[in-house]
Amino acid sequence: SAQTKVDIEDQDSLLINRNIYGHFAEHLGRSIYDGLYVGEASDIPNTDGVRNDLIEALKNLQIPILRWPGGCFADTYHWMDGIGPKEDRPTIVNQWWGGVTEDNSFGTHNFLNLCEELGAEPYLAANIGSGTVKEFADWIQYVNHDGTSPMADLRKENGREKSWGVKYWGVGNEMWGCGGNMTPEYYANLYRQYATFMTSWDNETGLYRIASGANVDDYHWTEVLMRDVPHNLIEGVALHSYSFVEWGNKGDAVDFNEAQYFSTMHTALRMEELVTKHSAIMDKYDPKGNIELIVDEWGGWYDVQEDTNPGFLYQQNTMRDAMIAGVSLNIFNNHSKRVKMANLAQTVNVLQAVALTDGAKMLLTPTYHVMEMYKVHQDAKLLPVSFDSPQYSYEGESLPAVSVSASKDDKNVIHISAVNIDSEKENEVEFDLSGFDIDDFDAEILVSDKLQDHNTFDIPEKIIPKQFKDFKFKRGNLKITLPPFSVVVLESK
Ligand code: AHR
Question: Which residue range or ranges hold the Alpha-L-arabinofuranosidase C-terminal domain (predicted)?
């Protein structure tokens, strides 16, 4: 096995924003209805209709922020349909996701109360594509104004006295596509208009306004937003990029071969280049870094077969997804200077979900366990790493096999997360930690022999983190051996 030397720099000024460990739940397939929301009358134990097993699982992840209601759905959603007595709410057609009907029983109050229960910041994505400035401004007034006003009074009539103080607001979603097929110039103008009417009301910290950013490598989009939107009107720019099987975009969540795996990792690792290049454009217009890069949709996306697809974008989640999660989170951590939020798509039953449900049953995916292992990085100080990765080669092409990030928490505990995506080779990694006060390490590993391995409703704990002992620590020198397809997190003691 090859050996890699990693240098770790000690520093105190740059934090890994906890919001990098954010999530996203859209009205899509079985994400909300028959996913996280089962309804108050369900036999499945729930709190205001949200399943308790999921609430407990998300609390354990300490999810910092949850984005809702879309995605593409956001630009079709009229929030007033989802407030007031449930029996009076209109049934709507989910035009983006299969034309299914929804009764609006899960609305603004349900979502914001759920976030309160989870201790997570809500991130609301507003309808710009088919809504109005007034509708958007009213939503903010409804959720954020404590005084007397038409919207605050309506909220109180609907049973909620105190405002929720929502800080994070998306001004549309994918405005280059499902949000309205706009040019960046047109959207930048529209953004200016909408942002002008966004009042923070009683939110003491002010609003955090997020523009719909680029699709993958559309650098022109970022350039125009940074150039045309006055910087006092914007806090974040949201990039979307998924990992998938390229070259024909054919894939399956479980039945895939090494070529498809390699290709998926290629798109996952491309995040490094995307974040670097979008950040460089932002640096040019905003050298002080006041406007932040948000990756509010990321994760694996496979074209699963109809007969194995019980809901839209439902897909199984295997060790391959654990690899995507491990390398992506390392990239976000390492780019903490500009990247301040990332939202995995999506929480339940859609794309790279952390939980899958089947009636009363729920399983936690390998991705869940990566998020669980990595939560130690939330709000910790980034310790920048530098190293030359060994290569994972497949049919003449190669990718960096090892990915690493590290942090130091407020108790001076060091956390190192390392991933080996190689399909065959183990990789030895050596860390010089001579400058740190460390006696030893505890460590956990998520690993499986086959990338296709996954948890099932019958065997939900096939893939869970286990104690990891394959490391040596002596006189500030840490050596670990990473097996193929493994994610390891070490904690100093
Ligand atoms: O997450 C699924 C979809 O992917 C979202 O609705 C959209 O924003 C993106 O294209």
Answer: 296-486
Please give the distance of CA 77 from its chain centroid, rounded to a whole number: 21
Residue 12 domain flag: no
Nearest protein CA to atom 5 of ligand 1, as residue = 71
> How many domains are there within the chain?
2
Same domain, 193 and 56: yes
Asked whether 296 lines ligand 1 (CB < 6 A), one says no
Q: At what angle do helices 184-196 and 133-144 cross, to 10 degrees?
A: 40
Q: What number does the ligand 1 atom closest to the CA of 96 have?
A: 6
Whether residue 328 contacts residue 267, with contact meaning beta carbons closer than 8 Å, is answered with no
Decide if 297 is catalytic.
yes
**Same domain flag for 375 and 394:** no
pLDDT at 18: 98
**Residue 238 CB–ligand 1 contact under 6 Å:** no
Tokens describing residue 314: 């439902």
| pTM, entire model | 0.97
Q: Which of 174, 292, 372, 428 is catalytic?
A: 174
The reply to whether ligand 1 has any atom less than 6 angstroms from the CB of 72 is yes
Question: pLDDT, tens digit, for every residue of 39-79?
Answer: 999 999 999 999 999 999 999 999 999 999 999 999 999 99
In a domain? residue 46: yes
CA 240 to ligand 1 center in whole angstroms = 8
Binding site membership of 297 for ligand 1 (Cβ less than 6 Å): yes
- Identify whether residues 78 and 151 lie together within a single domain: yes
Residue 132 sits in which domain range?
17-379
412-444 burial string, b = 16+ CB within 10 Å, else e? eebbbbbbbbbbebebbbebebeebebeebebb
Distance CA 65, CA 87 (A): 30
- Domain with residue 436: its CATH number is 2.60.40.1180
Active site residue: 235, 292, 297, 428, which one? 297
| Domain end point (choices 322, 356, 379) | 379
Is the minimum distance from the CB of 70 to ligand 1 under 6 angstroms? Answer: yes
- Domain check: are 411 and 459 in the same one? yes
345 lines ligand 1 (CB under 6 A): yes
Alpha carbons 171 and 210: distance in angstroms, whole number: 6
The closest residue, in CA terms, to atom 8 on ligand 1 is: 71
ipTM metric: 0.99
347 Cα: distance to centroid of ligand 1 (angstroms)? 13
